[in-house]
């Protein structure tokens, strides 16, 4: 028989601790993934408390405008006089962000609710942001530009093969060959005559 989670928690307190630790680890992973998705595109460093920085919808609206310029026409932002937005303005930002996601093309199944954002529910917010950044065409263009800049400039130009000059020795003319042969025969004939003369002198 399979025990339910409640029965396991009542029997084994360590099971409850392990489960809470796993949930905490999953939330931390989701938070880091969500932080990377936003920071890498907006080129900003978000506060350590990511959930509270997303509650007012300001960062999310800027993210939507990064994916599709002017998709959020007006954004309520804090001011030095009023450093914290009212709940009404926060909700307006959140609703404008979700409306922009719909216009960009995020499916209804991937959209979180305004309650998820204002209550810092990371899992549905992460799903919406991940679906939104899939429409980021600027990231594709950057990759194409990097690939083109990485390719050598000489690929487009035709390379002309280097011409190597080879010098060949021309054979001597025929009269030079016969001249060499004739002089050799004369030397041989002289040697024969000298040998004959020497032999004749010895005999006499």
Automatic annotation (TrEMBL):
Gene that encodes it: LRCH1
GO biological process, one term: cellular response to chemokine
Segments of skewed composition (Low complexity): 157-166
Domain Calponin-homology (CH) as annotated: residue spans: 24-137
Alphabetical list of SMART domains matching this protein: CH
Domain of life: Eukaryota
The protein's name: Leucine-rich repeats and calponin homology (CH) domain containing 1
UniProt keyword list: Coiled coil
Chain coiled-coil ranges: 14-41
